[in-house]
Amino acid sequence: MNEEKTTTHCEDEFISKPQVKSTSLIDENIISFDHSFGYDCKKMYNLVLMDKEALVFASGNLIHFFNVSTSKVTTRRSAMGEGIGFIVKNPNPDLNHLTIGENGKNPTIFIYKFPEMKLISMLEKGAKRQFSVLDYTPNGELLASQGGDPDYMLTIWDWRRKEIKLRAKSFSNDVVNLMFSPYISEQLITSGLGHIKFWKMASTFTGLKLQGLIGRFGKTEICDIYGICPMPDEKILSGCEWGNILVWDAGLIKLEVCRKNRKPCHKGPITQIFMRNAEEIMTVGTDGFICIWFWETVELADPPEDDRFVEIEPSHEFRVGENDYNAELLKIIQIEPEMPEYYAQDGLGGIWKCEVSTETLPNPPKQLFHCHAGEIVAMCTSSVSQHVATLGKDGRLYVYDYIKHKMIYHHQFVAAGCDFVWLSSSMDPTGAVMIFGFDDGVVRVIAFDYNIEADDRMQLVQVIKCHSRAITKVAVNPKGSIFVSASEDSTIFIHQLMKDSPIISLEPVGFMKTPSAVTCINWNPNEGSTIILGCKHGEVTQIDLPESSNASTSTSYHLDQVPVKTFKFKSVKSQILRNKRMKEIELEKMKKREKKVKELEKMKKDDPLMEINEEEFLADSDDEETFQPLHIPDPPNSILWIQYTSNDTLWLSLSGFDAGYIYEYDSIKGNLMMCVPIPEAENIEIHSYIHVDNFTVFGMGDGKIRINLIKDDWRDLSDFWLLSMHDNFLGRIPALKFSYDRKFLFSIGVDGNLFSYKWNLPVKQFKAKIPTAVPKLLKAVDDIDDPNFLTLEQKKEKENDEKRQEVSNDNKMKVLKMIEELRVEFDEIMQTNSLMPTSQKLTTKDLHLDDRISNDFQQKLDILMDVVRRKKEFDYEKVKLAGKKLLEYFIDSIDFPIQVIGINNRKSVHSFRIKKLGKDFYHLRDGVELKLREAAKNKRMVDLNDTSIRTVESESTAPIVESFLIGLSAVDIETKLECQMRRLLNKYRQRKSREIARKKEWQIINAERPNPEQDHPADQKFIEEARKTIGNYKLKTDPNFEANENERETIVKKLQEVLQAREDIFNIRNDYNQKIFKLRNKKKNLIEFIERKLRKLKEIQMEMPVKDCVKPHFSVSFDFDREFPERNLDLKKYLLPKNHKLDLGSTTGSRFDLMNSREKAERQLMTILRNSPSDSENLTISSKLTSNNFERLKSIDKKSSPWEDEMKNLRSRRHFFEQQQIIEKIKLKVFEFDHEIEELSNERYDVEVKAKFKELFLLTLNNELMILKDFETTENVLIEIVDNKNAERKYLMNRIMQAQSEIEMIKQHFEELKESKKRVDQKFRLKCLDNSFAFFFKKIYKKKLHENCDNDCWVEGKSSGSEKSESLKGSQLDVSLSLENLSEDKCPKNCDQNLYDLVFQLRHERDSLEDAIITKKNEIESIQADLDMTTQRQKKAEDDYERNRTKLVELRQRKQQQLNDVDTVIVLKMDQLQYFKNEKEFADIESTLLFNNQNLLICKLYARVGKLALETIEAKRKHRINVIHLAKMKTDIKFMEKQITDLKDETSQAMLKKFGRIVDLNEVEETILRKFAFDMQVEMRANSEDIKRHYSNKINELKKSKMNKEENLNRVIQEATEKLNILTVLEEEKNFLHRILMNQARKKEVQSYHEDENDLSKLKEISNHQKEQIEMLQREIRALSLKSKSFVNIRQKFDPLTYSVTQLRRDSRFEDSICSNPDESILSSTRATSPDQEALNDILKSVKKFVEENLADQLEEVEVENVSLNLSKYLTNIALTFPSVELDETLPEIIKNFCNFIPNSVHVSPENIAKLVAKIVGNFNEPNNLSQSEVMKAIINSTIETASQSAIASDSYLPFILTNIFQQMIITMRIDDISSPECTTEIIERLSKLKAIHARNVNVDEMVNEIVNFANENLEDEIDEKLLQRIILSIINKINS
């Protein structure tokens, strides 16, 4: 036995207490628990026997201890205050432990020692929310716990060590029972809703596992299973819902045990099954019976396989209950072993003690405890005494004395209770009257006398049925004058309280209708008769009720004249939550902005010259959160309670989604005023409300009592006190009540509990009014137990009906009496007339009417007859037309089934009855195809993924002219500039071009720089391709599925599929029918064939002897009713007159013609058969011969010649053969026909199956079509809207782009105008400013022609004109003063007239340009304004488009969801299913996904798995390379940054040295070039004529030179043509010689083929062997480069080589025949795959020196080079692969391979080789040129950089960094290097420098598991977890220290 872990617990810590804030003003002890009167008896197995006199059960949040002898109940609160899930006792007699599994978040199992209730153990993390069942093993060492919703985890505990041994998910539904097998320690069973599961704790190679096998019901109906019992033979017994016993074996039902005549064992579910002894089984049922069964009868029974029932009767049967009441037994517990006494849990309310004895007569059962059976619906307290009464849904009334903690009375009503009131002493002086409402619609008034203890203390005073459905609420107004009852029939009934009688009674007033069923009632405190009602669907109704009845209710109780005010609650919670979220988002944005502002200030402070766009920097870069549509419950939620406030407003509490708030409404207008939140109860319903002093008390939906302190702001509910009492899942509190003196508070719950509490705050002294005695009724009142009893209104209606019937009968009797009197009077007149004389007698004619009257009547009759005749004609035509339609619909459109019958076997084959595809079908199909073609032409499907429009930016590539060169042409620059200046200009331009190119290059690099938040474009392309083609199958069941254009389901497409399916069904059956019709025609041909053959046979047999004649036995005929049923459809024989003969020959239609031909053939055939000769007849020949002639001939004929005899014999044999052939042919034809019938009969089944499946598919298509019709109209509207919005936004975007383009063009033109103006200004300065009249010219030039130029014009001429020219000298300024008075109208004296005119021309050009600039500016402003408006419209259009697009997507998703819900039928073969998990367990195939075999998709998926695995390996390899490459790059970057800094410093020093300060070289060069350009322009103006003459002479010289060169070119072309001709002749001769040589070479190859054949075979063998060695050794190199394994072990795997290098070298033809490259002649194990070139060069020098010193005299120079190169590559691989520490182990192998590279004739000392190898390996660095320390630094820096960019909490910072460092080390370094002290030291030193690092609360185990899992995924070896844990712990400890 495991030793128990001893843990000390503080007992007070594990008793839950009230929840109250530290700042609360509410006293923590405001109330204290007093007593519990109830019991949650409906909870399964909620009873535990701790000792003989102590029972324990759970109710709400309390553990109840019931003393059997004293009937006292004590309680203990739960530990966590979240409810109690299950309680159980440890079965070990030495351990009297009570185990409690509590509920809540991550609940705990507590084990206490009884009776001290000392905490022994706590088991945590067994479930997520609740425990449903607990059970111990028989020895009590292991505990099993079953979790509830949502995880349903089954956990096996070693409770002593507080460890979880095994764990598994049991099922996906509630588990109600769990039991260990007492016979097999490793077996346990769970059962519950719709399942039973068998578990086994099995030992596997990976350890102990919990294996489960779900029970399969087979033919038995699936049911809930409660009682289970393991048997010694591993069978399991269980109960079922219908009360039988199921016997399970190997997961299947072997037997079902029932009573005789298939009666159930119990009349309800079996809750417990026990094995009493080896022969008896005891069952406990909810029917109240305990049965004992002799089980050997069942064991010996062997029922048939198809009926596995065993019928037996119980040997003993015990009933628990009394009188007509049977207990609902949920659990029984044996009090003592071997004793017949048991305690029983009664689900109908109570605990029983009973005896189960088969030897003696048991005592009757005794009920020890009484309580409600389930929900308590109402509670009231007495206003004059210490009593509280409760009414349950079970129809029971309980009255308790809450001071004595005793139940004093209980009564069972005939109906389920709903609500009641206990009238106060102010209304009823006795204080004993209660008025109840029940679910049968009856109101019952009782008087309860609590002062006596007799059984008749309760009197039924009055019974009224005022409602037709269940009563929901009852209430009495504060004045005590009105009683109101509300019902589910949406009515309220008003009664007047009559106080005249000794006991108060009710007088009906009337009823009123409500909008829906009433859920709560309250009264206006200011108006005593004004009622306010809260209804089921959120309506609030206010009514001023009448207090007495009036005359208007004499015929009906309906009060339709009473005014009613109603308003309806509108849900606003969704909007409140959205506003709350929006505020949170705004607050987050403000915080982000404040943070960015601080960053911006810091950046400006660090770099004041930095240019930052503040608006973009401070803009929020996060995407806007998308909100779901507002949720409005439909129908609205019900109102739980309604109260008036001190401000005369209404407080409403609602259920469902709107819970968590109190809604305040205006009581007059019905407007919502405020929503008061309930802190920490945002989604919890408030079911009850009570107000006392400065407190409001709420009864919550989660079973908690909430006391709120009323503050100055009485809407503030933030100060509250909370206590969990009732069940937190099912214990909502429907009522709270105070005692009459306010000293006690009571609460009831749906869990069946009644709790009392003491109110510990001081209250006002209340003196109860002394009640009067309760008078006795003189006559008992009968109760109503008939459910069909009439209500008051129904009685009224019945009375009214009876009154109307009575009046009607009276009127009828009066009429009959009048008729009788008239008849008697007529008889008397007739008698008097008979006694009169004849002359005075009235005849019959005298009694006739006048003829005119008769004629008038006749005319009217004729008119009526004409109308009737026309009606009849119309009816005739109507019937005729209807008959035609019926004929077309039922006959012409139907292919009636025919039947073809066989001839010999009489088998038949039927055709199908099918409806033809008429014109309407084909017309509809053509219309659908036309619509599809039109849709294909005019596709307007919305592209839901196109959400952006790309713009293309064009870059101007026009060459830029420097500002200082404006005015100079390119020719001037090339010719006029000096050589030095040209070099300076070229240098300046090259520098500028380099800067521009570098800038563009950076732009390209930045544009190509991958975005870390996006995938690489190539990866995106591959992913998109994979989504389309590989494995990423878009399921239509995906909630986010969006169909593309081709996949979209439309009515037209679906209708086409429906029509195609109908056509396929028709074709399948019609094709088969055509075969039947062909077979019928074949039968007709067969009959004609037989007819012909029989005629011929008759002719033959006429010449044959009778004895040789064979009569054929063929009965071939048609059954016309079955084979030609269409004959009966000829309606003419039914419509024509009887004497008219039907001309069948004139009947049209092929089938009727065929029928007539069949009849004719049949008649002919029958005639032939009747006239054919029989066997006994002789052939007779009639002739006209005379008797003499006859005699003579007869005598002659008697003599036959031999020839005649021979011919006769021959003819007879021929006829006999022909007869046999005819009969055989007929038989063969008949056999073939019968065989064809049989084949078609078999084929009919296949056709029927195909057609049925097609019909099922058609049914699916029709369902989908109906769904599409529901959505099509709305979808088309949305598509049209989206199309329009999309077109609008594209149009606006194009306008925006066009406007932007226009602005760019205008700006470009604007810049050109500015440049032109600058050129004009510059031309003016160049032409005029060096003249003596410069000041005068400037005055003219500056003057405006018109003054409309804007002062803010973008033209720079004004400023440039005002600036003084740098070229003016001081002397010219003095001259200008004298020129101020010159006139502009004429040219001054001594002034150049051309220059004077040029100034005016330039001024005009300047003014024109300035006007153009102003115009362009105005155009830009106009276009910009239009652009702004268009941009706003585009944004609005974009928003509208997105909104409508979202609506369209949601609509399509709803449509697709409904389409997915349509069921379809798919046929699967058994070989398509793989549902065996193992040999005993099956997989669930209900949720499988089916693929078709098109394109072999599954095969592609399987193949893709392998490709992905290879890609993963390749990615990991690249990742390792990239890590090293990254480290190299970072090193290179640091080096280049250092170089850049050095170069900048060097440049600065050079500038200081040369210029004395740091200057801009571009500015220096520009200054020089500008000065030189100006000088050159001045010089050009002076020397322009000389230049022109110079260039004209030069042009003439060039023309002469050109002519000479053209002549030389013609001469050279002529010579080249002659040489080309010679070359052609030589080329032809060369080709001829080449063909001769090819023929000779071909002959030589044929001769040498046989000689080289042996050499080729040998070379192929060598090549194949080398390939195998290459593959083997490459694997070795890869393994050695990744793993820290020794070289010797690896060599042992591959050596010895079967074909050595030495053998290869001994082949004389090896080098010349196999390898042209010397590297290829070396084994791949000795050749470097990719050696570092620098390392190879260094080693090559050492090796070459070694070879020259030791082998130079033995080898030639070429061999020295080859040997040195090969040895260098081999030693480079050795140095790359193996460290120097392993050299001693691998040196012999290296020397051996070294010698293989040297010819056999050459000898080298092994000592020299060893020295060389040691020197090279010892001095060689790693190939990446990085030490282990540098690699570690790169890994750590990369990890820290990644962590700094991620938003990681401070507590998770260190685990994240350490985990990533070790993962990078695993894939980068060798395993042995990871645990080296250098790596650990490097990590500690680097991480200790980080300020954000702290090593508190680090979960080392979680980090180790994550690293180990990563290592297992990336490496073949496993890492030692303990070693890794020690390394991490040492790092953390060092960081902490």
TrEMBL record:
<dbReference type="InterPro" id="IPR015943">
    <property type="entry name" value="WD40/YVTN_repeat-like_dom_sf"/>
</dbReference>
<keyword id="KW-0966">Cell projection</keyword>
<dbReference type="GO" id="GO:0003341">
    <property type="term" value="P:cilium movement"/>
</dbReference>
<feature type="coiled-coil region">
    <location>
        <begin position="1406"/>
        <end position="1461"/>
    </location>
</feature>
<dbReference type="InterPro" id="IPR036322">
    <property type="entry name" value="WD40_repeat_dom_sf"/>
</dbReference>
<dbReference type="GO" id="GO:0005930">
    <property type="term" value="C:axoneme"/>
</dbReference>
<feature type="coiled-coil region">
    <location>
        <begin position="1656"/>
        <end position="1683"/>
    </location>
</feature>
<feature type="coiled-coil region">
    <location>
        <begin position="573"/>
        <end position="603"/>
    </location>
</feature>
<keyword id="KW-0206">Cytoskeleton</keyword>
<feature type="coiled-coil region">
    <location>
        <begin position="1588"/>
        <end position="1619"/>
    </location>
</feature>
<dbReference type="InterPro" id="IPR001680">
    <property type="entry name" value="WD40_rpt"/>
</dbReference>
<keyword id="KW-0677">Repeat</keyword>
<feature type="coiled-coil region">
    <location>
        <begin position="1282"/>
        <end position="1323"/>
    </location>
</feature>
<keyword id="KW-0175">Coiled coil</keyword>
<protein>
    <submittedName>
        <fullName>CLUMA_CG003446, isoform A</fullName>
    </submittedName>
</protein>
<feature type="repeat" description="WD">
    <location>
        <begin position="464"/>
        <end position="505"/>
    </location>
</feature>
<keyword id="KW-0853">WD repeat</keyword>
<dbReference type="Pfam" id="PF00400">
    <property type="entry name" value="WD40"/>
</dbReference>
<feature type="coiled-coil region">
    <location>
        <begin position="1526"/>
        <end position="1553"/>
    </location>
</feature>
<keyword id="KW-0963">Cytoplasm</keyword>
